[in-house]
Design goal:
12 strands; 3-stranded mixed beta sheet; about 45% helix; alpha+beta; 6-stranded antiparallel beta sheet; Immunoglobulin-like; elongated; 8 helices
Length: about 325
């Protein structure tokens, strides 16, 4: 009787141990094997459990037993009756040397409810095989690598490069035009005139031609004053050697004040320039008296400021007259 009771006790203990040991299981599987070097193998750690808390998977770096880890996936959970009873973690490995690679059992840690002790379980081990490409040299000789294939010339392939070159040339000519025009604008403008004709005579001749055109009488005030001031500016350039065609009216008056002391002449040229600026830039329509005075003052300004040539005969006559006095 006591002997039977002993066997019953031992049997019950073994059953309880078996149940406890089955409260968590871990398994390592692979999706394929015997692959070529550089190819991928997906591994999966699957953990099934009941009444277990805080399951911790192993932490991987970049390698696992000389295998390169290509990618790690997050942990997947599987529920039964709204309870998590299975966890799965996948990762991909590869190798670049041929041979067999053994993955030892991987450690999984966990805790039971209401217990502080950390317990462990482990997966099974796996052996992976990576092969090189088999080269059959029997009965055949190794051949060189094929030379590069020559592709026939196609105009469509060249077209994008031609377009780029044309765009660059177009931009170049645009820049040359813009900066060339700007540089010419800043260059000193030398007016055209006949050096054989004295400055005052040439200016008066042009004033007479301008009067015959009757521009302001036709309402063409801007054109009239543009031509009038151009005649005077050419005269000033020849008479005082100033770059008068490139100066504003204010700049021109300031420069003339340095060379011309005739007060009346300066008042006249200032009057003409003021009326001209209003007509050319402010669309002002001068009245008849202003138009008449502008041409009249132009003649007077030239006559008051022209260079008077004194001949030897005039000098002798002046000496004789002075001696008689």
């Amino acid at each position: 009787m006591y002997r039977n009771l002993f066997f019953i006790t031992v049997f019950t203990f073994l059953i309880l141990n078996t149940v406890k040991s089955q409260e968590i299981t871990a398994k390592l599987t692979n999706d394929t094997n015997n692959v070529l070097i550089g190819e991928h193998i997906t591994l999966n750690i699957n953990v099934k459990f009941k009444n277990v808390n805080n399951i911790v998977f192993p932490v991987f770096a970049d390698t696992l037993e000389k295998l390169d880890i290509v990618e790690l996936f997050p942990v997947d959970t599987f529920r039964i009756n709204n309870k998590i009873e299975s966890l799965s973690k996948k990762f991909i490995v590869t190798a670049f040397d041929s041979g067999y690679y053994e993955i030892p059992p991987l450690i999984i840690s966990y805790q039971r409810p209401n217990e502080d002790d950390i317990k462990i379980t482990q997966t099974n081990s796996l052996v992976l095989n990576f092969n090189t490409i088999h080269v059959d040299t029997s009965g055949t000789s190794l051949k060189d690598i094929k030379p590069p294939i020559e592709i026939p010339f196609d105009l469509e392939d060249l077209l994008p490069y031609l377009v780029i070159v044309l765009i660059i040339l177009l931009l170049y000519y645009i820049l040359v035009y813009i900066f060339g025009k700007k540089r010419k604008k800043n260059e000193k403008v030398i007016p055209k005139y006949d050096p054989r004709i004295p400055a005052d005579l040439e200016a008066i001749e042009h004033l007479q031609r301008l009067e015959k055109e009757n521009l302001w009488q036709k309402g063409e005030f801007k054109k009239y004053y543009t031509k009038l001031t151009d005649i005077l500016r050419v005269y000033i350039h020849r008479r005082y050697h100033l770059n008068s065609l490139e100066m504003t009216s204010v700049e021109l008056i300031d420069e003339l004040n340095r060379y011309e002391q005739n007060f009346n002449a300066m008042n006249m040229i200032q009057y003409i320039l003021n009326i001209a600026d209003l007509a050319k830039f402010a669309k002002y329509e001068p009245i008849n008296d202003e138009n008449i005075e502008s041409i009249k003052y132009s003649y007077s300004f030239i006559n008051l400021t022209k260079v008077v040539d004194i001949s030897e005969e005039d000098i002798k006559k002046s000496n004789i007259d002075g001696g008689e006095l």
